[in-house]
Amino acid sequence: MTIEKLAIHGGPKTITKPFKPYNSIGKEEIDAAKTVVESGVLSKFLGCWDPDFYGGPKVQEFERACEKYFGVKHAVTVNSWTSGLIAAVGAIGIEPGDEVIVPPWTMCASATAILHWNAIPVFADIETETFNINPKSVEANITPYTKAIMAVDIFGHSCDIDALMEIAKHHNLKVITDSAQAPAVYNKGRLTGTLAHVGGYSLNYHKHIHTGEGGILVTNDDEIFERLQLIRNHAEAVVKDKGVTNLSNMVGHNFRLGEIEAAIGIQQLKKLEGFVTNRQDAAECLTKGLKNLTGLRLPIIKTGYTHAYYMYPMILDTNLLGVSREKICTALEAEGLTGLVAGYANIHLLPMYQKKIAYGSRGFPWTSDICKRDVNYDKGICPIAERLHDKDYIGYEMCLHQLEKEDVNLIVKAFEKVWRQLHTL
User: Fold this and answer.
1) How far apart are CA 205 and CA 210, in angstroms?
2) Dist. CA 9–CA 287, nearest whole Å
3) CA–CA distance, 269 with 263 (Å, rounded to integer)
4) What is the CATH number of the domain that holds 169?
5) What global pTM score does this model have?
6) Residue 299 is assigned to a structural domain of this protein
7) How would residue 3 be classed by pLDDT, with cut points 50, 70 and 90?
8) Of 114, 107, 257, 96, which is closest to residue 176 (Cα–Cα)?
9) Domain of 107?
10) In a domain, 259, yes or no
11) Is the pLDDT score of 2 beyond 60?
12) pLDDT for 4
């Protein structure tokens, strides 16, 4: 009888060649970009009150297509989702020193966009089921200075937006949804990202649809819509001639999307549901293959929700398994599995928050008069997010690969092989 040996101990790898990288660009996008290049109109924005203040024909066509697809009154494109988050925080009227509640389990830009306006991020813990912001923790972190909630639909599963909007209504707050990783998925029959005061999606190269860089903001609020457009395109130079009297946060930027990116986005949007369905099919096969492994909790999808699987999130019961996460991940990687992530994020523990230094070297805005209290960023304020990052969470970056059925089968085999030999680690 041949004794199975893990690759980490000198045995053969389960996965011997890399999976095909995810690439959603096809002939339609190439032809669309070529047409724009040949036209010579790569951008048509003007930073003044003019018909071209709203951008070129492809930008406007893309925005109208997004409005139709997402079922919203208004869509505004931007040159990155970070730009989109900055514009969203400014557009809802945040004042210096206002507090905005945000999860720590996200990309750093979610919180940095708050600091951009000299407002104060306050971190609320996450749910163990979906890894999204926990409404109970949000409620516990509300103070007289709280003005907004930024929810993140992490990994492709929508947050509990109904609970968050109820909290916001009770406390007169605005809600922003960062749905960068969750386009074309549903929350009780409604498209994720469209249910807050303002939300949106990333068009970064490793998202479901991409234009290289870019973002889409969506809102049903006419005033927020106008302010998003102004912040995107040199607001301070436009407000006088446009007749805008609310000058709050009318500090202009160049957050404008180009015509090439917009033309690509138009074609990508047409394919979005197919992209997400393919990812869901691969995830379903992965779940079927891994469901019987002891001590491995697979993604939980709440009733009435769907999942985009930007990431395939899992939790290890290391106490039950008797093996550390690091040893398990090392063994899986030795089997040829790339794209594993041990832990995710705890942005409240970044040096910026631990030392409270952002603008300049003297602790602004926390040490200034605009900060109304001593906000705590100590380790321990978000115990669930911290435990998951430090010990229990592993994710597979489905966003990296165009997975075929054979690829999924190999991933399952790698997990099964490691699980059979856990006692050797």
Assistant:
1) 5
2) 27
3) 10
4) 3.40.640.10
5) 0.96
6) no
7) low
8) 114
9) 27-268
10) yes
11) no
12) 84
